[in-house]
Queue: 2 jobs
Job 1
Amino acid sequence: MTRGLRVDRPELPPGLVAIPVRTRLVRPGEDLAGIVRDAVRGIARPGDALAVSETAVAIAQGEIVPAEYVRPSKLAYLLARRAGALATVNQPESLQIVIDRAGVWRVLYASAMHVLARAIGRRGAFYEVMGEAIAAIDGYTGTMPPFERAIVFAPQNPDAFAQSVYEETGIACAVVDANDLEKAKVLGASSGLHRANVERALLSNPHGNGDEQTPVVVLKWRAQGPNPLFAAVTPP
């Protein structure tokens, strides 16, 4: 029996339930929309929303590179040693890809801004300066085998993928980047879905960041009144 997790957020009315759905391991080149369709059969129905992990979408699209293929520079090693333990850029290989994509001078500027901001008690300046150049890369320590040493990039055209899942299943879909730090971002969604409310519903990260192998979460509305997955609502 598939169990649901009650979504308890002050920004949302009570009645939402999140059901993590286990799938087989997703590999590059596979039909992920078909995998999602088969996994949620008998669990999801129209009126629900499917939240698919952006990592699974990226892997299926082949948007990964083994860390062994990357040769970090001295600068990458130097800066990675000064990054926080949970930061993507504490891995020299990941940081080297950021350097290659954004350029040495931009990374040095972001590092300088980080130091200045920390001196006045403000965090996150490095990520603010780097923007999408760093947001599009996932470090390899959080990805399960056999991809634990693979650097995962952002999925390509997540809106189109989400729409393809909707067309196969008749169920709304979002591609979501969520983590255990209570952060969730919808990268792409099928038409009609309320992106902000989907993000709020996933802040507790029911996908998991370990070896749960649950890249799909079914969001269900089990109450009266407007479904917040498709409409903006005011909490009671």
Note: The chain has a mean pLDDT of 86.
Job 2
Amino acid sequence: MAIFLTKESKVIVQGMTGSEGQKHTRRMLASGTNIVGGTNPRKAGQTVDFDGKEIPVFGTVKEAMEKTGADVTVIFVPEKATKAAVVEAIEAEIPLAVVITEGVAVHDTASFWALAQAKGNKTRIIGPNCPGLISPGQSNAGIIPADITKPGRIGLVSKSGTLTYQMMYELRDIGFSSCVGIGGDPIIGTTHIDALKAFQEDPETDLIVMIGEIGGDAEERAADFIKEHVTKPVVGYVAGFTAPEGKTMGHAGAIVSGSSGTAQAKKEALEAAGVKVGKTPSETARLARAALAG
């Protein structure tokens, strides 16, 4: 079992013919992802050779869906073209759009997120500025390395790409049902709460690991949700305990203002909801092992 992405998922890549798109399409194919096409209106009708596998290029997301039955798109286009690419995916009503691009203007994200909601949330957006998601042994949509963990019973949701990889590696002997990198921009599509809800409902996820970071109140809102709706054990980590106030750190959304958004405040909110919170990724992994051991 997995959330959002399974071995049945049929994936297209918007921007597949560009250098980043080609590089990561090759990596996704190598990890078993069922990539059925790419889009580039200027190269429609062509194919791209990936180590002997010919992947067709379509003019639009809608055409790709009609010809292949695609239900997932991974978006590798420059930041200035991202809004148009996501809008195209939403208007085609593809069920899942994974937006890898970083540096997307917050106004652009707000615009396409509002469009998705106005159209009834038929398209789940993950990102932008995220590593994507992986259901180990089944499918990989994005840039997460596929060889650092195995299938298992931990669900991972994280704002940080690199911390996603580290936690996957720390707990690689236990394995994961799905790992979802939601991104750290001020506005994102899928949130911690969305992933927590999905993992709570997934019968093959026994433990949830949640990685947050300084800035905003997403972790505090997630803590409230956990308190009310999550019965599975949750282990957390919040990056940024030593971050200076008022300075943007890493992600655009990672900025502390006064007592709001600090790692300590987030840790306290999560612990009040019964979440065990590690001070380091390694300590968090130890807490996860202990929780699974019962």
Note: The chain has two domains: 11-126, 148-293.
